[in-house]
Amino acid sequence: MDHGTQATASVLASLALGYGIFLLVVVAFTLWVYWRIFEKAGYAGALSLLNLVPGVGPLICVIILAFGRWPIEDRLAAALAGTQPSPGGAPPPGTSVMPQ
Questions:
Q1: How would residue 72 be classed by pLDDT, with cut points 50, 70 and 90?
Q2: String of b and e for 68-96 (b: at least 16 CB within 10 Å)?
């Protein structure tokens, strides 16, 4: 191998390593963002791991979030109806907070 070929191979290997690290950072960030979104919607955060399925994973996640009934909506409706305590320990609507 001459010096030019070896230098070219070295540069290409460095670029490949940098690109691989960049891809890992992007995938980890995407999983973290989807994890937070699923948790705030009331789903299990582990549903974000569907993004690791090549091709259809992100589409499945978006379909679940766009068209599914969010569990947090059910909990909010139950809290507003007074059938369970509201999140954060707040009293159900229509009840007095003052001791009698």
A1: confident
A2: eeeeeeeeeeebeeeeeeeeeeeeeeeee
